[in-house]
Amino acid sequence: MKKYILSIAVASLLYTKTEACAWSDPDHDYFNLFTQSIIKDKSYLPFLHNYSDRFYTNYKPSQIPDENIESWRKFFANQISYTETNYLVNKISLADLNDLKKGNPNNPFLKKLGSGFYTKYREAIDYLIEAKYLEPYMRINYVESPDSFYYRENESDKNATQLDYNKTISALTSLYNAARNPEIKQRYGYQLVRFNHYTRNFDAALEAFKKYVQHVSLKGAAYYMALDQLAGAQRGLQMGNEANWNFFQVFMKSKSRKESAFISMKLSDSASFNNIMKRAGTNEEKNMAYFLLGYEDFTNPIPMMEKMYEIDPNSEILKVMAARSINELERNYLPTYYYASKDSDKNLDKKNTATTEKTEIKKKELSFWQKIVLFFKNLFGGKKSDTTNEKDEQSKDELFENPDRIPTFVKNNAYYYSQDENQKDFLDDLEKFTSKTKEKSKDEYWQITDAYLKFLKKDYEGSSDILADIKTNNPEYLEEIKRMKVLNDIVSQPKIDADYEDHLMKDYAEYFVEKAPVKKDSTETNEYDYYGEAPSTADFLKDVLANRYFLQGEDGKSYLMNNKLSDLQYNPNSSLVKSVEEFYRKPNKTQFEQQIIAKNLDDVGNIDAFFANIYGDRAMRLADFDKAKSYYQKAQSFSGIPRENYEKYNPETGKYEKLVYNGENYDGYSNIPNLVFGHNVWESFQSSDAESMKAEDYTAFPFIKNKMNKLELADALVQLKKIGNGKDAKGSQANQLIGNILYNTSILGYYRQLFVMDVDNSNGGKYDFWNTKRENPYQYYYKNFTYTTFIEPDNFDLAINYYKKAFDRTADREQKARILFQMASAEQGKYYQYEAKNQANIDYSDPKWSEKNDTYEKQMGDLKNQKYRTYFTQLKSQFSNTETARELLGSCTYFDYFMKR
């Protein structure tokens, strides 16, 4: 027998491992394209599929009808609505009912019913009066454990034992005997069973059910309410099998009590559902028992579904099982975000040949992860090809074709996915089952599910053909069909051009145009939603289009489908910024581009200045100071880096303080201190620049101001570069200052924030050494752009080259020693870059891990000494007797260690 991946226990493993955030929600990690809740019998809504709660909760409680209210409404000859009946039975006060009985009602609703309502329904109103009197006490006496830590401040302290037992039993018995209507009589019987249950008179409860409930030959709402209480009393008497069977009957027959009955079955008998299966006699009971067994152990649902199909292919609970199975497939096929794996870029310099070679690879030759990846075909279309001129048809289906590219949500859950290497079998078998069932069942639901499974298999034409033939008046079915037609249309489109964008706006605007937020009713609670709104069909389609644009080389449009213009400040890599700017300046935008994409060109002050500042920063990092100056001239109206609610920890106060631009601190353009040309006294990013940095002698360079904006800084560097062409001491010093600023604004420098659109040098992903050979880590689209940090790597050779000029043009040994140390620091940056790209990647499970890791570290150490300590070695061998070297020994422990080797 095949064993599929659909395991509740294993699913919980997925939940605990995929997200680091304490507030993560697995039910937000995929797109709900197939609406589970379109099942017709809404009483089964709690038993649809989710991971976050014990039962499915994404529905309104009012969707599940209460058979007790329906029964009362019928009793009142449907004179009042369901809502009014619920108000009368559950909400209206005891005093109001007593006023009605006295003939002078004050409640507006009771006045509307008229004075004859009590006369007509005297027994019913008298029963409701008694029931409302008892209701506050109708709970079991909870005996607190001495070790209990649960605080019950807001719970009522009333319970059934606070009523006089004999008087209550006598009153209810008298009312039962006096009642003439059988339904009202049975309701008094229900109260007798319930009262005995809650006072722990379990034997009396059993007797009361037999004498006062069963004796009345009715099996409506009151009967099953009483049966529920009987089962509770049986559980109290340790009659597990009997209790379980009666809870099972309540589960079958009740609409609003299925959830509580299911829990009670679990509590009553450890072998609950297997025992029920043995006892089931009728087809209805067997069908329901198969459902409960399949629901409880969702590892292999299809065999149970086959048994249910044989009994009744029109069964509503069979649709519930199908909905749960489809939902599980959605979670595997449609994650809300695809991550590239940590090692996924190893072979990306080679042309991706997975598509053409896949058919030539024998299955037995594939690794486990290759099999998994080949299974996970992505609906979006693919990853961006390294070959710029590939045809659309070739790039259309490349996402996850590369066996080295394993999504994080798979890699982090090896156990989960190792349950079955051939997961695709489940989709195939479910499709076979659905195709068979749709031929027997009269419900269009099965045609819809068949179309959806074909959609998951990327048979968009087959899916569309099925949808076109469905004839139904069910509004929920019609909505699902409409959505699926849109999905098939858009997902099957290989290229998005202007004509297709016009089609999107003409026919599908509702999925892309944002609706105004719905105002909450004043009575609604404004609870905080930790997870945000669940991903929608519109979100999915947005991702599809983002991926299409990405494949087409329209990075700017791809980016703006999921991100704001202002987000570029977090990862301002040049090629993406250029593409976004090209879209911004594009004339004659389509309606789709104007209303859907361009709306994300949010407020960054002056947009032209925003782009110019980014370009100027990049030019500075590349030491192209003339170009930087020309950009900064266009950026003078830059209004500062927008950081809403930004806070930074202040070690002096021990508090987080909100960033406030006071006109003197760095704002992304202005207020850069001349210490940026200085050198480290010690390496401490948390300390003030006055503590960490020391100024050089700027006397010969009056254009270096105490504080500068970026235009002034670029101008100063242009002048220094000219002076640096000189062969004298001043030329040497100019080159040293240029080398300093290039190092100080690198990933290792105190002012590393200046040219990467950041507000300060506090640590974060922006200052990690990126471990990829590629220029861009975004492989499929730019969704969650700020989650993946990427800045183009520093070119430390630029600083080193200026330092070399400075070193060669000075005769001062102290200055030479200082320059060599700065060169050695930049050289360390080159080593860190190399190290990050050449990780050991030794499996911890390898029994020789320690040995292999030691070998790796020795190799890296040897390499460091041979290639990346050139200037340390020179400083040690030629300038160790300088005052500068002695000072460095006291302030740099690393240099001290090296000198003593």
Automatic annotation (TrEMBL):
Q: Which domain of life is it from?
A: Bacteria
Protein name listed in UniProt: Tetratricopeptide repeat-containing protein
